Here is the input.
Amino acid sequence: MLKKQADTIRFLCADMVQKANSGHPGAPMGLADVMVVLMKFLNHNPKNPNWLNRDRLVFSGGHASSLVYSFLHLSGYDLSLDELKKFRQLGSLTPGHPEIHTKGVEVATGPLGQGVANAVGFAMAAKYAANLLNEPNNEVINHKIYCLCGDGDLQEGISYEACAIAGNLSLNNLVLIYDSNNITIEGDTSIAWSEDVKVRFEAQGWDVARIDGHDYDQIEFALEQAKEREKPYLIIANTRIAKGAGELEGSHHSHGAPLGEEIIRAAKEAAGFDPGLKFTIDEDVLLRFRAAIEKGDLAEALWNKQVENLSNEGKKLLNSLLNPEISKINFPDFAGKKVATRDSNGVIINEIAKALPGFIGGSADLAPSNKTELKGMGDFPNGRNIHFGIREHAMAAINNSFARYGLFLPFSATFFIFSDYLKPSARIAALMGVKHFFILTHDSIGVGEDGPTHQPIEQLSTLRAMPNFYTFRPADGNENVECWKVALNLNAPSAFVLSRQGLEPLNSGEFGSVEKGAYLLKSTSDAKITLVASGSEVSLCVKTADTLNALGIGVNVVSAPCFDLLCEQPKDYVDKILDPATNIVAVEAASALEWYKFADIVYGMKSFGESGKADDLFDYFGFSPEKLVKFIKDLVK
Amino acid sequence: MLKKQADTIRFLCADMVQKANSGHPGAPMGLADVMVVLMKFLNHNPKNPNWLNRDRLVFSGGHASSLVYSFLHLSGYDLSLDELKKFRQLGSLTPGHPEIHTKGVEVATGPLGQGVANAVGFAMAAKYAANLLNEPNNEVINHKIYCLCGDGDLQEGISYEACAIAGNLSLNNLVLIYDSNNITIEGDTSIAWSEDVKVRFEAQGWDVARIDGHDYDQIEFALEQAKEREKPYLIIANTRIAKGAGELEGSHHSHGAPLGEEIIRAAKEAAGFDPGLKFTIDEDVLLRFRAAIEKGDLAEALWNKQVENLSNEGKKLLNSLLNPEISKINFPDFAGKKVATRDSNGVIINEIAKALPGFIGGSADLAPSNKTELKGMGDFPNGRNIHFGIREHAMAAINNSFARYGLFLPFSATFFIFSDYLKPSARIAALMGVKHFFILTHDSIGVGEDGPTHQPIEQLSTLRAMPNFYTFRPADGNENVECWKVALNLNAPSAFVLSRQGLEPLNSGEFGSVEKGAYLLKSTSDAKITLVASGSEVSLCVKTADTLNALGIGVNVVSAPCFDLLCEQPKDYVDKILDPATNIVAVEAASALEWYKFADIVYGMKSFGESGKADDLFDYFGFSPEKLVKFIKDLVK
Here is the structure.
């Protein structure tokens, strides 16, 4: 029966790819045998994809999406056979790579290596959830995390980073199944890949098994072994790509293109299936798979009893993790205080953490510089300060999983310049629309002596160009507070771009319009110029405006902590703050070209920075009141 | 004497950081002992930093820049003691992290992990140079590559990727010295780092030695062992951070801040140095270090004789590597041909490779999709097709070193979406201003069924926002040719953003203005609208203009293959092609906000893409002639 189940998956996947005339049949067919055995072990409830204590199953090789959808349909998730027939078509629930609008998909995957790091993230989230919620003789969190990955995932640096963290933390709830088929797009893996994967993982603190990925007994034995361990567990499953696809079995030509009608017919015939039928699921096979529904229903019912048996404190904690009460945050007040926004941010996140038990995160080894230590809250997994090591990319992917876990509001911190290192994961956060907070300090040439390798120039533009991602660059401590109030309510990731250097407080009693992205900070009735700026350049603009107003040149100043939100405002609001009758000059120590959307002139950075004292650099690059005043005076001449 | 030499370096570094009141004394002091022994082994010529057969020395931990500058000054490079005293000041040759405008710096480092991959790149470049140039009994290329790195470098995924490649290629000319001091910024490395580095590297095909990094005999023995090997060689040097700095020795507080005058005085005293003196180099020490000048001069003289003894073919080849003759490229003609630009690009780079023996590169396992195979030119290291594996980040850093080696014009290829994975290295290419060509195919929602994880949206903005980087997105095969002609002559990296799908040929006999970034493709005397576009959207605009012109709405069309070059043009040129009297609409299937610099309206992407057939997606997101015609008609109403 396992063979017939696996073949059913194989041909479903082959048929999907063939009908779409697009997709990747090789990996799903190679993994089908592993999949049918894994499905026996999986503790989940297809009728409630959000059950908290379900096992998480991550398909890191997102190109094997036909396998994902076959798994979901066969298990009884809310995904019809019709959707499988619309594989990779516009508007379907079966896109080319799995996305979370399909119920049962834990995390969007596709860019290689991400899923492995996501799996480590789920394992970490589960560890912390267990640490918080489990009580003596009542383990409400005790699920496993399974991840299927391929050669490409393990070649990507992000997976190495994440697996190092998994080993360091002894994540014994994590089972990584490596589909080792020796095939990559350019040919045999040996052209670029000759490491001893077993030894590599052992060096990182993992247990490793090696099995024949087409031998059901071996697969079962390995998964049985995975149950009780001290360390994360890697199962190297030697497989044949496109197993069962006749002459294309073992060939890299099966990786990313339909097999062809002829091959599929022959393969079905060889497996004892009717070659004339497509998308076939025999009743006996379906029955076997669909047993997952009853099993899952029972498991969740038993678990609900466990939750009932939690102590009152436990129930209360669970409830506050499930429903974070943002209104309970005791936000600080920085009125009149000159403060670096990295510092104000540090105070703010400590207050958030006090109010929200699910607020958790860490830095890629820069916590003292990023000011992200959650004071007195201990180190992960016993506490909420995660030491990610110098691994920005894995950090962000791991925190994507914290955000998807169901209980947590994670943050990732590093220098703004190193947001480049984690960008691919930030993008997936945006695609999924999860609350994941990026704390990015040292935000401009204000970095100073560390020089151009450490001074962001194009990074603001990079983040702002990304859909469904909100970048906040507050101008002082209180604006920083307002930005958090907005960000916590967005269904999207956001970034806090923060200064290393102290920023003068704005003389504004009111920040009500941070939610609109920008607001009029200072206005005169006869303005000829509007200066719009963010972060450290706002007070520069205020000083410049004061000087110019005294000279009789009317200048308005707009503080724009969030360009992305401003883009969402109607024209009348934009025109109200950025008066079209004035010459609008955007001032940012960044490339800032996107400001041309609103501004007539962008006063930004046209080159990389330099190494020198921050004040010297701001002056050198024109960001001093004297130089900006001169620029505006020349402009209105 | 070694001890005194090392202490001289220590206190030079400590004095530099103290005087600058900024910098990182810990790593330089910890590495000083290794450094003085390594300097004995180093085969280089301080008076000619460009000598081709010099050993390459890469400081991956660029924050140890005071060590770099001490090394350069003491060895006799063109870097005065006065410059060391101006450490980290604006305009000095001693910036916070090493940059290549300082003679003797092989590659700009700072962002962690990059330097390790750069070292692998130099080792690969040397292998290929040796393969090309060495003749029986005349090894004109036989130098070593040394790289100093720290914990942070080895935690970053890029270093893992690069070291996997080094192992796979058995780069026995590579010596990586790991400064293992157990200290990171957040504290002891064990908080995030517990892998067995020795075993990890052995698993990747390296030989590994472990030594006391303060024991001169052990350092010398290890470097002696490094000379003749079959594999790349890792020396794990156990060190104390800030060795010799009294109470700060071994403390993470010594990593990124000046030690303080008191500590330095005491340390000097303890080492037998005059605590009252700063920037001291005793004559005997200087003499010992400066022996490098005579030794280097002799080595290069001997090497020059070797070059004289090369065969005529060898001399000719060396000359054509040193002086690539771009004029000899036989560029293809795609006139009238509908072609995907990834395909036209494949033909072009094959012609470039035929003409230029130093043109070399590869893909991150996507060569068949990127169309980057150099046909009939074999696989690296015997040929020019490098199989990087699924390792975009290491690929780009490795090719930065090919570009810096002195003989090569490298290219890196992947899907455009995965330019995110390699961005940090592309940035360093831009900072250094090296010729490094990024071939980025599958450039928009035209990717089709693979869906939003694989469809670039913000990537054009990301690259365009980066200083000193040129992004070309040609509209057809012949424009693709013209883009290459321009790019090959730039002293900067460039990217080719190319379509998966076929593009209609433009009916333009003349592309003379690609060097200006954009040109008028189609004009009418009574234009009300100017459409400006790049890549696949140009022919959409041509079709739209044809329809609208027939309806009596005058439309000009500007093809803009390179936004960055357009930004460099004077206003009169811009106004000539983008007539300010018209309503200027930029059309790009991308976020494209930077186009507001020139356009009144941007007709772009406001969200991520979708999974579906490419034609369906273009229509769905408004990039069909019908929808664009309607948009313009509404606009002029």
Summary: Chain A touches chain B through 108 residues (CB under 8 Å). Chain A has a mean pLDDT of 97.
